[in-house]
Amino acid sequence: MGLGMLSSDESSNSAASAFAAATGVCFGGDENSNEATPNLDAPKLHLIPKTTTILNDSITDNACFLDPNETLKPTNFNVNNNIRSPLSAIMTNSRPQTAKPPTMAVPSTSSSSTTTSSLSTFSSLINSRPSTSAEALSSVKKQVFADSGFFLYRQRNRESSGPDYFSRLSDEIVLEIFKWLPKKALIRCSSVCRKFNQLTADESLWTRLDLGGKHIRAGAFSHILSRGVIIFRLAQCEMVHPTFDKKFLDSYPDYQSKLQYLDLSMVSITKLSLKQLLGRCRQLKKLSLEHVPINDEICDQIAKNINLESLNLAMCEGLQSWSVRHLMTELVNLNSLNISWTWLSVDAINALVSTITPNLLRLNMAGCRKTMFDSHLLTLSKRCKQLLELDLSDCTGLTAEAMKIVFSFQSLGYLSLSRCYGISATSYMDLNKLPSLQYLDVFGILSDNALRVLEHSFPNIGINKFIHSSVARPTVGTRRTSIWGLRTRD
Fold it and tell me: pTM for the whole thing?
């Protein structure tokens, strides 16, 4: 169909298109029509020319379209119903595509001469023979969009839909809500606004923290401990040196954390970083360094926590006699000590039993092979008469005389002598001299028949009930969400 030959239906469609362009109202095609409607799902923006120009949808392939959800400003201009874009004659499969009525707002200028000039330009384009070549399409677009005054304009409605009730909440209510969120969610909330950033740093939200098994980057403790963490689980985590940022230490050289319960069991950390971390802890009540290499400097930092009640040094390497003496002299409030399998020397054991605090209630000295003797146990019995639990497993230097010394612990409720091969089986028949005893572990010593006889002789005593000792250990069994009975996860 030629451009100059418009039927009545096409003419009415052209009029509807012009009305839609002027009022911003989009008219849909006939439901029974099979004609294609290009750019139906394309995003739409305002396209406002500097001068008045009448455009059809079909010539705006590279233009931005109007968003149907946005409000159009009313515009006034004159429309010639007989004008149609030459690009509407572009053929697809030998059939012209009828463009959807335009949905763009084109404001008019105050100058009528400009409008006449623009219409003349389009009239000249219409009167020319339509071309389907790419060169003709490019030339038409250049003539239409040659004006440098074209610009894109998006109108946004930033007015609030209603009152902001959330901002009326008090800080106390928001904190109560934040207490139910995990730590990852709190960190994300801190980026929402300035108010949230201040509230998420409140110390009441960071009382307990569990980073067990995590990888902690260098300097992270500057941000973690400054939030006021009290219960901190770091078991099996990996720490990168240094633990504190240098700028933080320069700004706060005397900073001390509020940590009271710290689990560092089996962590991967350098001795320098561990010294730096413990150097910022002076309020510790319970500490676990199981299977962590230490030295005299680290022990000196531990000893400065004079309120320490529980200390777990099981399987720690590097523990010397000076360190043991220093720890036992300073930690007078200690009631639970696990120093098993630390390969203590004879001098270290002498220092331990001669300086240990009389307030001690639970002691684990397992693994002192050929270094602990009956004389050490006698010295210990004279200093710690209130012991409730005593584990002397694998102390092969003890003899039958050790059983007579054990009977002097009148408050003892748990005793472990597993694999103490120097103690004869007949020595256990005098356990009635220890009326407070409730549990006895003698793994690897007695035969099955001897165990049955012992159980029959002492029915009120549990024989071989505990494979592992729980003295001063932060977790027992499969519990991994608490340390020393305190929750580490919210």
Answer: 0.67
